[in-house]
Write a structure and sequence with these properties.
Layout: E1 2-12, E2 15-25, E3 30-34, H1 41-48, E4 56-63, E5 66-68, E6 77-80, H2 92-102, H3 111-118, H4 133-145, E7 151-155, H5 163-176, E8 181-185, H6 189-192, E9 197-200
Bound molecules: adenosine-5'-triphosphate (ATP).
Domain ABC transporter: 3-204
Organism: Phaeodactylibacter xiamenensis
Keywords: ATP-binding, Nucleotide-binding, Transport
Length: 206
C-alpha cells in the first residue's frame, strides 16, 4: 500500500492538531510516528487508516498501482490500537474463528498455530473479558500482525506487555511483516527502532 498525504491538517473544534502534513508512505517500508503524549500520533494513524477524514488536504491510497477508495482501505488493512477493542464476550476460539471470517491469517497458519504463537493454549475456552491486560494486548497484536494484509498499523504496540512480551512482539514483527507496509505510533524506542523512517509529529504543529 502506498499512502500520499498532501497539505493534510486536522482540527478538533478550534484547535489544529496538525497542519501541512506532506508525506508519502511507500509500499513495503516501515515507518515510526513519534511525538509526546497528546501530540497527535493516534489522530494521524486514524487518518492513515481511512477512519478519520482530514479537515484539510488530501490522502490518496494506492495498491499495486491502482487507487483504493477510502471506503475500501479497511479491506487491505490490519490495525491494532488501544481504542480498537476486542470482543470481550467471545472466547479465544470464537475470537479466532470470527476474525478469520473477515481477515484470513497468513500462509498456512491455523488456529492451533495461533494458540502456539500466543503462548496461552490453556486459555482457549476463556472469555476474553477474563484475560489479563497483557494477554489482551498479545491477542490484539497477533490478530493484526498475523493477518494476511499488505498494510499494517500498530498504535502503542507494547502497552501492557512485560519484557518477555516485548521480545515476543519484536519476533512477530521480524517473522511476519516482510513485504508489508508497516506504520507504528509510539514513544518507546523498542517498539520501532527497526523502522527505516521516522515521522515526528511536532514538525507539523506550526
Ligand atoms: N475526538 C476528539 N475531539 C476533540 N479532541 C480530540 C479528539 N481526539 C483527539 N483529540 C485531541 O487531539 C490531540 C491529539 O490526540 P492524540 O490521541 O492523537 O495524541 P497522541 O499523540 O496519540 O497521544 P498519546 O501519546 O497520549 O496516545 C489531543 O489534544 C486530544 O485531546
Amino acid at each position: 500500500m502506498k499512502i500520499e498525504l498532501a497539505g493534510v491538517g486536522k482540527r478538533y473544534k478550534m484547535e489544529w492538531i496538525m497542519r501541512g502534513v506532506a508525506l508519502t508512505i511507500h509500499p513495503a517500508q516501515r515507518y515510526a510516528i513519534t511525538g509526546p503524549n497528546g501530540s497527535g500520533k493516534s489522530t494521524l494513524m486514524k487518518m492513515l487508516s481511512g477512519h478519520l477524514t482530514p479537515s484539510k488536504g488530501k490522502i490518496q491510497f494506492t495498491l499495486n498501482d491502482k487507487p483504493v477508495p477510502v471506503s475500501e482501505v479497511y479491506q487491505h488493512l490490519a490495525y491494532a490500537a488501544p481504542y480498537i477493542e476486542l470482543i470481550e464476550e467471545l472466547t479465544l476460539i470464537e475470537a479466532l474463528d470470527f476474525h478469520q471470517r473477515f481477515k484470513p491469517f497468513q500462509g498456512q497458519l491455523q488456529s492451533d498455530d495461533i494458540y502456539r504463537i500466543l503462548g496461552f493454549k490453556k486459555a482457549r475456552r476463556k472469555p476474553i473479558r477474563n484475560f489479563s491486560s497483557g494477554m489482551k494486548q498479545r491477542l490484539k497484536l497477533a490478530l493484526a500482525i498475523l493477518s494476511d494484509t499488505p498494510y499494517l498499523l500498530l498504535d502503542e504496540p507494547t502497552t501492557n506487555l512485560d519484557t518477555e512480551g516485548v521480545q515476543w512482539y519484536r519476533q512477530l514483527i521480524e517473522q511476519y511483516t516482510a513485504g508489508r507496509t508497516l506504520v507504528i505510533a509510539s514513544n518507546v524506542e523498542v517498539d520501532f527502532d527497526f523502522c527505516e523512517y521516522h515521522i515526528d509529529i511536532p514538525q507539523y504543529k506550526h
